[in-house]
Amino acid sequence: MLIGIRTSAVWLVGGLALGCTDRNTGDGAGSPGASSDATASPSAEARHPDPDAWVGRWTGPEGTYLDMRHEAGGYAITIKDLDAARTFEGAAAAAGIEFERDGVRETLHATDGDGTGMKWLAGKQNCLTVRRGEGYCRD
Q1: Using CA atoms, how far apart are residues 31 and 56, in angstroms rounded to an integer?
Q2: For residues 96 and 111, what is the distance between their CA atoms, to the nearest angstrom?
Q3: pLDDT tens for each residue of 99-122
Q4: Distance of CA 10 to the CA centre of its chain
Q5: Is the dihedral of CA 44, 36, 139, 83 positive or negative?
Q6: How far apart, in whole angstroms, are the C-alpha atoms of residue 103 and residue 119?
Q7: Number of helical (H) and strand (E) elements in the chain, helices listed first
Q8: Which of 38, 138, 47, 45 is CA-nearest to residue 96?
């Protein structure tokens, strides 16, 4: 009986070890230090290399939107969330357009719908994302 328990314990530990292995294919996803936060895909960046092309209205879910216009030396970015519309001053930067909101430096950058992290925008191709979970697209 003792041998049966030891054998079962070995199989259980071995099975747990196999079940916990990393199934990634070596693309870096899921490895320590790799960001799980989607930023801009290369195809999205290729579509929007110039922030001037982002001027205009971008639609989010449930009546939210981002509206961007040129303003002296930069951009005025109006973001309408579920509560209110607020406008921020933005400036072009290497990663997109930077602006400050509630004391936090944010960067608006090109993505696709999947890159926004929002199920309502999944599958769309022409989007801008402030951070994962906050994105806006043009159809």
Answers
A1: 38
A2: 11
A3: 999 999 999 999 999 999 999 999
A4: 42
A5: negative
A6: 28
A7: 3, 8
A8: 45
Q: Can you tell me which residue has the tokens 């001027």?
A: 55
Phi-psi bin for 123: left (phi > 0), alpha (psi -120 to 50), beta?
left
Question: Tokens standing for 13?
Answer: 């530990």
Token pair in block for residue 118 = 């929002």
What band does 2 get if pLDDT is binned at 50, 70 and 90? very low
- Sequence-separated contacts (24+) of 66-72 with Cβ below 8 Å: 66/108, 66/128, 66/130, 66/136, 68/97, 68/108
Both tokens of residue 128? 């801008």
Show the tokens assigned to 97: 């357009």
pTM: 0.66
Q: Tell me the β-bridge partners of 132.
A: none
Distance from C-alpha of 115 to C-alpha of 128, rounded to nearest angstrom: 9
Q: For the beta carbon of residue 130, count every other beta carbon within 10 angstroms.
A: 21
